[in-house]
Structures are given as structure tokens and as C-alpha cells.
Design a protein that fits this description.
9 helices, single chain
């Protein structure tokens, strides 16, 4: 039994409980929040890590496994690991078609229970706004990647200050919680998601944080009028 795994912090426990409560409706809500674009964003996030043949890949904060399943779909023979803080989310993932082919594990994104240089690629979606220490989270992903391995992620950004900002902010602030209430009967969870998205770092700042964690060849592509972005980065080769 490894002792590497530390206790989840109080914020982490709160986030885990919140996601446990909305697990069964989470996928539908993401589809609504992205105006139906979510599957394409997931595909493009996985493409960004440029998977080789039979890669070993970790999806952090896997939720109900959208990225993990997409990795398995894009690369036959991939060894896919899906880690999440929420047991209920993992239960949903486990029972999806193909779920038995993926290794699901409960764990903390700020203290990954894997050895250094383990994975060819790491992905995550909507993770960074839910952790108390983004730098530590990125350093952990860097640590478990093999030299030259790629990381990619899908993240929210605050709307840029242009003509669309009042509209997109209003959509995220007012419309999304109401949709969430209709779909999940848990508006508090999506009010939290809405608030953390509006107050989150810009895509430029996230890219800088990746560089501070040691990543090279960083870049991103903005989506949804600048309210989301796909980021990619590489661990330095040995």
C-alpha cells in the first residue's frame, strides 16, 4: 500500500461532494453549457497530445470519463487511466460502454499516486479552477509524464473584454444556473462552476503557469468567443 497519497484538502472535499451530487447529469449539462460543442472540444483536446502507438495516458479529473473514452477511441491499444476526486463520477464512468477497459482511480490532482516518468501523455478538462494550488497541480502532471511527453487540457477562461463579454457573462452568470436547476436540481453546484469560470485566469496566464511548471512548446487555441481554450504543452526531452 502506497503512503504517497495525502489527505484531500477541505476545498477538495467540498468539490468532491458537489460533483458526487451532480454526477448523473454532468454530461448533459456540459453539452448545454457549450451549446453542443463539447464532443468536438474533447476530440481536439485529445488530438493535441499527438498520441503515438499504444500509449500510456492519464486523464486527470476524468469526471465521467469523456476524455478517457476519447483517448481509447483515438488510439486502439492505449492504456488509459482515469483519476478523479469524486467516487460518484467514477461510478458513472465505470458503467459506460467500454468502461471496463479503462483503469479508474480515486485520487487528488495535487498529489498524483503515480511514479515519475510514467505516462506518454496527460489530459484534463475543467480541472484548474477546482484546485487550490494550480502550480502544484501542473508540476504533478509534469512529474508523471515521460520526457518528451505531451499534456493537453480544456479549460474555461473569463470572457475577453469585447462586444461579446456582456452576453457571454450574462449567459454563464444567469442562464447556466437556471438550466442547471432544470437539469440537475442542484443550482448551487453550477453557480459555483459559473462563479469560478468568471473569476478564473486568462488563457495567457494559464500558459505562463505551464511554463513556470517546466513545460515547453506551450500553446493554446481559444474557443466559444474566448470563454474556453484548449491548451497543450510538452515535458522537456531527457
Amino acid at each position: 500500500m502506497t503512503t504517497h497519497h495525502s489527505a484531500v484538502d477541505a476545498h477538495g472535499a467540498t468539490v468532491a461532494e458537489m460533483f458526487d451530487n451532480i454526477a448523473d447529469r454532468y454530461d448533459l449539462m456540459n453539452l448545454v453549457m457549450t451549446w453542443g460543442q463539447e464532443p468536438r472540444f474533447i476530440r481536439d483536446t485529445v488530438k493535441a497530445v499527438k498520441l503515438g502507438p499504444a500509449p500510456k495516458v492519464l486523464d486527470v479529473a476524468t469526471g465521467t470519463g469523456d476524455l478517457a473514452f476519447e483517448i481509447a477511441n483515438q488510439r486502439y491499444g492505449a492504456q488509459v487511466y482515469g483519476l478523479d476526486i469524486s467516487n460518484e463520477m467514477l461510478e458513472v464512468a465505470r458503467y459506460r460502454p467500454g468502461g471496463a477497459n479503462i483503469v479508474w482511480q480515486t485520487g487528488d490532482a495535487m498529489d498524483l499516486p503515480y511514479e515519475d516518468n510514467t505516462f506518454d501523455a496527460v489530459t484534463h478538462g475543467y480541472l484548474l479552477r477546482n484546485v487550490t494550488d494550480i502550480a502544484k497541480t501542473l508540476e504533478e502532471q509534469y512529474r508523471v509524464l515521460k520526457p518528451g511527453g505531451m499534456m493537453s487540457c480544456l479549460e474555461m477562461s473569463p470572457a475577453p473584454r469585447d462586444i461579446v463579454k456582456p452576453f457571454s457573462t450574462a449567459y454563464i452568470k444567469y442562464v447556466v444556473p437556471r438550466l442547471a436547476n432544470a437539469i440537475t436540481q442542484n443550482p448551487d453546484a453550477y453557480e459555483y462552476l459559473s462563479r469560478t469560470s468568471r473569476g478564473f485566469h486568462t488563457a495567457d496566464r494559464i500558459e505562463n503557469m505551464m511554463q513556470e511548471a517546466g513545460f515547453v512548446a506551450t500553446g493554446y487555441k481559444s474557443l466559444m468567443f474566448g470563454t474556453m481554450a484548449i491548451h497543450w504543452a510538452q515535458k522537456t526531452a531527457a
